[in-house]
Amino acid sequence: MHEHAFIHLCQPDAGKSCGACCGLYNWADSSAESLVERLKSRTRRFQGMVRGLDDIPSFSEATKSAEDQTKRYEEIYCCEYLGFLDDEEKRVGCLLHPLRNGGTDMRDVSFYGKELCAGHLCPSYHYISDAEKQALIHILDDWYLYGLCLTDIDLVKNYFRLISEGVYEMPPPSRFEGGALREIARRFFSFKISWPFRNDAANRFGKYYFDGSQYMISRIDYAALGCGRSRFDAIFLSLCSEFRKGEEVRRAEDMIQANIDAFVASYQNVD
Ligand code: SF4
Ligand code: SF4
Predict the structure, then answer these.
(1) Does one domain contain both 159 and 104?
(2) Residue 2 has what pLDDT?
(3) Do the beta carbons of residue 81 and residue 96 sit within 8 Å?
């Protein structure tokens, strides 16, 4: 990829894509299995029902009545037009997009409208560097984890900072194309799903929670746990951690540190 080429985070390659800003992860049950079912049945319904713009309202009605509408945050819209773009169900995306509909852009009917949907670039475009974007695209190869991690700017920036400090440079993105480094980095980002200290009941996206009218940043009360603020505090918040005792904080720190150490050791071995 050319150094200054625009990196299209939404649809980076044939193997994955992101649908986070269409409300993908705002369903109360946003597990991978549940989202796959939701997107699968919508896409099938769309293919069966929609021949043109006139069919959209009945598609929308049918989808809303068929699906569980329980959200995490009522204030965040969950769009019913997000589905799978390809037969292999590797890419999530907009069923109203002109590329899917013989050139007709049907996004005017959506809640946000065509202008917003087509022009939206989320903060990740701005805050994540080109090298970090390219590395992430190499590391993650499924839409579910990709969209979850890509939109967690703190997690991404903190991880790349920590490994860069360990190896005294930002690893060139090509180092993540395969092999041990990619595996180790992928294990880290998979914590987003498998983190043992995750508090699911907190109903949060990363470190934010919704308190009626505004996002509040959550905090970990280290004093109550009898320890100081962890050096991995930002990562813990991204992973929605809740600790019951200080010993859990230490175990969690060991897990993060072990991943960084493994990365650093492996980085030096290869070169
Ligand atoms: S959250 Fe960002 S990367 Fe994901 S689809 Fe939206 S604009 Fe694209
Ligand atoms: S209509 Fe807009 S919000 Fe809905 S899936 Fe398409 S791009 Fe996303």
Answers:
(1) no
(2) 47
(3) yes
